[in-house]
Amino acid sequence: MKLTIPEEEILSTGHLACQGCGATLAMRYALKALGRDVIIALPACCWTVIDGPFPYSSVGVPLFHTAFETAASVASGIEAGLEIQGKKGVTVLGWAGDGGTMDIGIQALSGAVERGDNFIYVCYDNEAYMNTGIQRSSSTPYGAWTSTTPAKTFKSTPKKNMVEIMVAHKIPYAATASISHPEDFISKMRSAKKIKGPKFLQILSPCPVGWRYPPQMTVKVGKLAVETNVFPLYEVRYGKYRVRKPAKPKPVAEYLELQGRFKHLKATEIIEIQKKVDEEWRTLLKKEEVFS
Amino acid sequence: MRVVITGNHAVSYGAKLARAEVIAAYPITPQTEVVERLSEMVANNVLKAKFIKVESEHSAMAACLGASAVGARAFTATSSQGLVLMHEMLHWASGARLPVVMANINRAMAPPWSVWSDQNDSLSQRDTGWLQFYCEDNQEIFDTTIQAYKICEKVSLPGMVILDAFILSHTSEVVDIPEQDLVDKFLPRYNPKYKLDVEDPHTFGGLVKPDLYYEFRYKIQQAMEEAKEVIKEVDDEFGKAFGRSYGLVERYNCDGADTILIASGSIASTAREAVDILRNEGKDIGLAKIRVFRPFPKEEIRELAKGRKAIGVIDRNISFGNEGIFFSEIKSSLYSEPKRPLIHGFIAGLGGRDVIISDIKDMAKTLISKEPKDINWVGLK
Questions:
Q1: A187 in contact with B at a CB cutoff of 8 Å?
Q2: Nearest to B59 among A37, A54, A111 (CB)
């Protein structure tokens, strides 16, 4: 099967990612979708390291490293600076991890989205602070082990629903995507590029180191997250939902058992997670039914 | 054009005539008037700029950095808690070598809440790599805002124009505002050598290992040293164009004076009056105003101190556990001098307490009659 994604590689080899890094695939596909006329605002995250040490850089487009909580506010400044100088046709891309988006950076992101600033914000979601060594974030799912939620006291609260927070801002475009589904991901990035105003994409980016699975399984883990409805693929365009539906959802256990971060879970807890996933899925379909 | 405006509006007009292109700001008393006026100018299209109404000062500085990194002239203004919230991004601005200019209205830090003047907000940003200019009156505020852009863009470092809360921020004075074309001639467009540009992609601020980080820091220090000369050159050029110049340290009635008081900000104005009175009374005293705190004008201070018997430093600030901050810096500058005057420290006016002529006369008396102390508390209840 031939994929329809662009062949040109903007991200070069020689970057510093771990083997099997989902976040690196995310950048690779995002750049394929957007092309070279992109300026990236990059806060502290895995990508701070992945891009390479001075004087090297692997992204192939201008990149501004910035502080943890400032991806969105720096993106706003870049956009304003370009606009006042009359520079058109450049996509400003905020590129942050889940901690930089949902925890420390949520205020700046909320501010920028409420103001309607014109940029694409990508949260590459690896569900914990992976760069600092797998500490829990508000994106860590229920049940997961992390280095700050030991198995005995695993993460006991649900993953923060960032897309819904963005939708509550009346954002023109919000979507989820996964590195396991590059065509869907690239098509969403291109949709986002065409829309004026703030755009938010949350890209599931499995992390072999933090999720405790062998590096060659990244795409498989991503696929299972989607096929079990743990991480549904959907978009919300001007408030209208469009959900991608798997033919027949696979049991959540298939996704969980591939990953060491869930290995402490008891059968009853897995049943509990399945119930929650089903519930969330039904809610999402209901939203699509009502807002479409 | 001569107008009667507050210190805050002197900042606004300074930013306008400097043609700030991106303004990102968050409200805080007593700064807010600065950006309110700028937002009107942008709304009325008399200033061609983008105004980003951010949700915090931290984001204000972050947005200024993004704008500056693409080659736009960026401006913000803040005060006290807002400045301190920005602290992380202040380091980022100097590390990224971005010549953002900011006005800070000196306001005391809470708790307890205070909206009145002291310098602990800006002085606790001492080591962030920002140039700091302490202004005495509204004309100087306006002029310094314009000068700051030229200086900062030459040395690729950010700069802070600092004025006292209310005493200057909300007090109206006559300010001469020059014609735009004269300012344009003095301050050409910002045109950085490196910027975020899709035609010429570069990465800014990436990881640097110990084998090079040290050199990055050395270069900031070099730029600060260079700034001392650049400040003088720009100030001279400004003087030729507009008839006003200020220097790093201004001497007032210092000729032949055995004793010198050193002040900054609006206290310097009061001290001028006090020195005039004391001179009329036959006292042998002069005043020096420190206008530029970073880079610190060590050479000027050493020159000033030569042959004096005693120096008194007035600090509207305190480094808890030590002494007044200007006092510390001046004392340390003089350490290597073969002959040093006695040096007295005065803490005065914290949280906007008035510092009046009689206070300064008392300080002058202390200089000649008492053993020097690191801290003399002025008017302590």
A1: no
A2: A111
Residue B15: pLDDT over 80: yes
Beta strand A38-42 with B259-263: parallel, antiparallel or unpaired? Answer: unpaired
Q: Predicted confidence band at A1 (pLDDT cuts at 50, 70, 90)?
A: low
Full strand arrangement of the beta sheet holding A240-243: A240-243, A234-237, A173-178, A199-204, A120-125, A91-97, A38-42, A63-65, B203-204
Could you tell me if A216 and A234 are in contact, meaning their C-beta atoms sit under 8 angstroms apart? Answer: no
Closest by CA to B34, choosing from B93, B95, B77, is B77
Partner residue facing A54 (CB), from B96, B198, B212: B212
Render the burial of B235-264: b for 16+ CB within 10 Å, e for the rest: beebeebbeebbbbbbbbbbeebebbbbbb
> B45: which chain A residues are within 8 Å (Cβ-Cβ)?
none
Identify the structural domains of chain B with CATH numbers, from first to last. Answer: 2-242 (3.40.50.970), 249-377 (3.40.50.920)
- Residue A84 and residue B22: Cβ atoms within 8 Å? yes
Give chain B positions within 8 Å (CB) of A77: 22, 24, 52, 62-69, 74
Q: What is the pLDDT of residues B279-335, one digit of tens each?
A: 999 999 999 999 999 999 999 999 999 999 999 999 999 999 999 999 999 999 999
Residues of B in contact with A114 (CB under 8 A): 55
Give me the numbers of helices (H) and strands (E) for chain B, helices first please: 13, 16
Chain-chain contact of B52 with A59 (C-beta, under 8 angstroms): no
| Distance separating alpha carbons of residues B120 and A146, to the nearest angstrom | 41
What domains does chain A contain, in order, with CATH numbers? 22-290 (3.40.50.970)
- Alpha-helix runs per DSSP H in B243-340: 267-280, 298-305, 325-334
Q: What is the ipTM of this complex?
A: 0.97
Q: Which residue is closest to A16 within chain B, CA to CA?
A: B207
> DSSP state, B55?
S
Please report residues of B whose CB lies closer than 8 A to that of A90. 198
